[in-house]
Amino acid sequence: xxxxxxxxxxxxxxxxxxxxxxxxxxxxxxxxxxxxxxxxxxxxxxxxxxxxxxxxxxxxxxxxxxxxxxxxxxxxxxxxxxxxxxxxxxxxxxxxxxxxxxxxxxxxxxxxxxxxxxxxxxxxxxxxxxxxxxxxxxxxxxxxxxxxxxxxxxxxxxxxxxxxxxxxxxxxxxxxxxxxxxxxxxxxxxxxxxxxxxxxxxxxxxxxxxxxxxxxxxxxxxxxxxxxxxxxxxxxxxxxxxxxxxxxxxxxxxxxxxxxxxxxxxxxxxxxxxxxxxxxxxxxxxxxxxxxxxxxxxxxxxxxxxxxxxxxxxxxxxxxxxxxxxxxxxxxxxxxxxxxxxxxxxxxxxxxxxxxxxxxxxxxxxxxxxxxxxxxxxxxxxxxxxxxxxxxxxxxxxxxxxxxxxxxxxxxxxxxxxxxxxxxxxxxxxxxxxxxxxxxxxxxxxxxxxxxxxxxxxxxxxxxxxxxxxxxxxxxxxxxxxxxxxxxxxxxxxxxxxxxxxxxxxxxxxxxxxxxxxxxxxxxxxxxxxxxxxxxxxxxxxxxxxxxxxxxxxxxxx
Length: 558
Hints:
The protein is of the alpha+beta class.
């Protein structure tokens, strides 16, 4: 026969168990509070992240929802570090001083002096709010500058300098060694000349002079620059043409530009027109070209390069990719077009897309950079929106491609060659970067850009065909370097977490003290260098202390 415990013994056991449970829960609550105070756990981040609204999916605007886009992480390669992409060498240069980053700006480079510049651009505050910028930055690639300089300029030159104004999404066109032209865009490129309304968002042509030094004496806006008058749709829309292609036709001493859009949300506002701009005095006279042949469909975000080769009989503009306007079912193009000037100055359009033997491997592209190297007869395409459905693909490219044009004048096949994968590791893919390259030392530049709603500030230089030990030993400042090269500092393993944005820009016209050491490029960050992480915007944190009493009370109640 079983024996039941006495009631008094049962009650005592129950009270003991309850006391133990209360003490255990109190201990958990105490440990939780200590964890919060030490920063090990942050409940306000948990709540902020849960409450943070996600942007609507819109591939054309690079606004994919956060559910499908991983959070940005720190770039693992520090300033001075190298990436061997097996077909090209990437070297990271000092970041632009625009925090958290900038995209859609005007880039230019003087290959005789080594001065690199960047002006204007944009910051995407939200899905519907975009702010233009007017800052002008410069750096001389001689190893003496640790950071870019901010170059001041008067209100009568360059871009409009009111708050949240400037110029964005223009075409960047080199006019030779020491001159470059910012071609239209919006946000105040005209300083109110054509759009004198409240917002003053008009577009214009602005010429930049790039001399031998990265200061106000060497980098300055040309006086009296701008279009003499607007014509056609440019006049109707006050010059606000964004994301056009643009090149310098050296044979005819003119800038050729076209396509682009006055409103990315409307296909009817996207252009198929091509213009020419010729200098008359300090300003530019605009004319509309009327090419023969089948005209490419309306598009924006195509990139282009001028090609002239007498031996091959080539004289024209190669135009790559682009995007259809409109809100729904808009296409990104994998097409390549040739605007042939060899028979008439207004040109003849020719669709050469079908001549590419591996057209599908290259895929659709837009808003990347392009350049032509006459010494090798190669056209280069790098960065931009691309396709993740191709081998090594990504929605935002960090790769490099090229095509040799020796057979362009005939009927032979053309072939894209991949030098670096679009999902190249070590830097974030991006679009809306200017086409800037060095014809003397055969290198391509990457300045800022955008990945979805994230602006980027990092700057890179890419050397095609430099690989292996040559990449490891590459010094991007060698052509213009001054001063000795000393022993590099010790290295460390990169941190997997994001770091703060770069320091504030160097004050205008203030010389930067030359570095006492020169960092030997390495895939491992130097201990003195902090990897730059492009900042992501987060909701304002809620004080963790508001959660602790509630959580402790809840635990004790159980």
